[in-house]
Design a protein that fits this description.
The protein has about 100 residues and is of the alpha+beta class. It contains three helices and four strands.
């Protein structure tokens, strides 16, 4: 941890990783943990987001093909469809 002349604190990535581990084991809310550790909640949230992005694989397109042909429907399927994905992504289409 490095304290700048204006009083702001700078921590390394490794220090933030250790902080996140302590938070995970603490059982505290973010607000309580940040108060105890004397960390701003906004800095904590920003680093939590930064560190969680690194372990997540970027999404990619995967084509799904049925192993057997679908059964013939007697009536065409029509309507509006919605698919909710993690991260708040929502796909909507009409058929």
């Amino acid at each position: 941890m490095r304290v700048l002349a204006d009083g702001r604190v700078r921590r390394t990535r490794a220090e933030w990783q250790a902080i996140m581990k302590r938070f995970g084991k603490s059982g505290l809310t973010v607000a309580s943990f940040c108060e105890r550790e004397e960390i701003s909640a906004s800095a904590f949230s920003e680093w939590k987001r930064k560190l969680s992005v690194n372990g997540v694989k970027k999404p990619s397109f995967v084509e799904l093909t049925p192993s057997t042909p679908p059964p013939r429907a007697s009536l065409p399927v029509r309507g509006e469809f919605e698919l909710s994905l993690p991260g708040g992504v929502v796909l909507r289409w009409k058929a």
